[in-house]
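Quick note —
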Amino acid sequence: MGLNSTSVIKIVDLLCEGPIEGIEGARKGVYLDESPLQAQSGEDLVDKDLVTFDSNKGGREPSYLSQLKGGELNTVIDVSKEIGTSYTEILNDDGTEVRERNYGSGEQTVQITDPDTDSIDLIFTIPRLFSSAQEGLVKGQLFDARVFFDIFIQAEGSGTSFKRIKVADVDDVSEAFQNRGGASVFYIEGISTTAYQFKISGIELEGKAPWNVRITKYPQSIYQGNIPHTRSNAADVDQDIFRATYQEFEDIEKTTPLKSGRANTLLWTSIVKTIKNRTANSYCATVGMDISTEEFQSLPTRAYLVKGKKVLVPSNAVPRDDGSLEFIGSFDGSLGEAVWTTCPVCIFYDLMTNKRFGAGNFVEANNLSWVDLYPLAQYSNQLIDGEPRFACNVAVSSQVQAFTIFQDFASVFRGMMYWQSNTIQLTADHGNLDSSIVDPVHIFSNSNVIDGVFNYSGSSLKTRSTSIRIRYIDPDNFYKPNILVVEDAELITKYGYQVKDLLAFGCTSKNQARRLGRWMMKSEELDANTVTFAVGLDGALVFPGQVFAIQDELRAGTRLSGRINSSTTTSIVADQPITLPAGASPMLTCILNDGTVESRSIYVGASTSGTTITVQSAFSSLPLVQAVYSISTTEVNEQKFRCLSVGDNGDGTFAVVAVQFNDSIYGTADAGGELEFKDVTTVDEKPQMPII
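Predicted structure written out below.
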């Protein structure tokens, strides 16, 4: 009798925090052993009758999964152990006669440690079970064989004795099991040359955890009082587990080796642990599956293409198909409904304020300002070659220190966090949506810094990265990590390979990873120029991440900045006489009464002589008297720096640290190319050697 198993594995997977948008493409988004249930064309790659699934999106009152039978939760524990061995023989020296026969007795023990476990199911596999005729007309034909085993359970570890489980003690057994002679005996009889599986269900666990579960494989002689036989001794009884026995040999010797013609292998495949569901699984997105062993002989690996957790987005934001946001009309400062999005800024906000899994118990919504977040969201979702500039696709599967995970999520949009005025300030290294230059928020010159001194420092070109390896998640390779390399061929030629490894957190786009690599390489070029200085109360007007301008007389080679003695909306009177530098399109930049910075074209004429400077169009308000002004042309410009930190020295002064800023870095990061540097000095020739 051939053995054919058709058992069904029921399993429930916890996906993530809910509510979520759902599994993308239904069966197209469910993968078993890295293969989808349905092709993108709609063709079923796995029979719908052999693998079915159900899911809930993890709302406050989640839908009921059919796989949670009776409100139970099942967990599969892999065992993969052979009980005893298959039939073996010990032969004489020349290998022609059997001296001893071993029918493969043995045992295996597995411990269940979860104290909440209520019952278990045992799954077994019989890959080989048969006996073959050795003579006559049926020589080589397969006949039935038997496997006998017992189940024992011991509660409290080693605190109690093992209790034998009988057939009558379980809820369900395969039809292959027999119960003869009034006793409960587990044995399988038949022929198997493939992985035949069977399950013993509903074994209740009594007492306290941990429980030791032991499976013992016996020879038939152990049950000789319960199994019909006509043999007179134990060895002969054991022989009866094989239908084709050596006792019936007529043409060949009874000691002829039979190992190649017999098998009785028993594998303990897994344990299904059952816990009665005592609580509601609110906000838990789950998937339940029924998997037939006709299609998968062992539990397959499972993966799901998920549109993940819904988060709040600005009220004027509409999700695109790829999860990025399109902003329609003006933003009124409020948030709309929760939607699925890849916008890293909205995801960051949700993680920061969520009380279930985020920092919401410590950070209130009013500690974050959407006045600052909204421009970051706009910049992140602007399309570059048909995809959002920054997108975040990531699953956080373990506890992480809050500050660390916030830094990781902020890194997706080149963000930086700091605490200011009892709120979490979030800024980012980004340009304007229309690719225009970034206006400075303040001006510093020799006139308003302590001692009139700017301290510049840099790093050697030899220490800069010449090759950056970006690690990202590749959707074309089943969302496994892949490496993309961005290199500077010119620097490699000069200084060789200086390799930097970079993790693109939450990145599933090769183009986004490439943009990150370009930005990092060009940032290192700019980071080579750092400035530090001390300043009075003006230091309180600049925050980390903001861009400010410096007009340094020593670097410019001439005095192009000073203080304003008096002003109108169309002219200022400077503290010293002004001489316009060479170059076209002279510009005057001033700090206005409201603290903002504006630039206007200078009217070139007689009015530029002496200390008065007149502009062609009026400022929006009066330039602030005693504030700093700056002059620039096409041939000499202010230096721009991005603030890294502002430290309060405690004596009314502030220490400012900043790195060089270049407006062209964003176009270079998005499209490639080289940085464009503006001239910041009138010194065009190398100084001559001193005459000694």
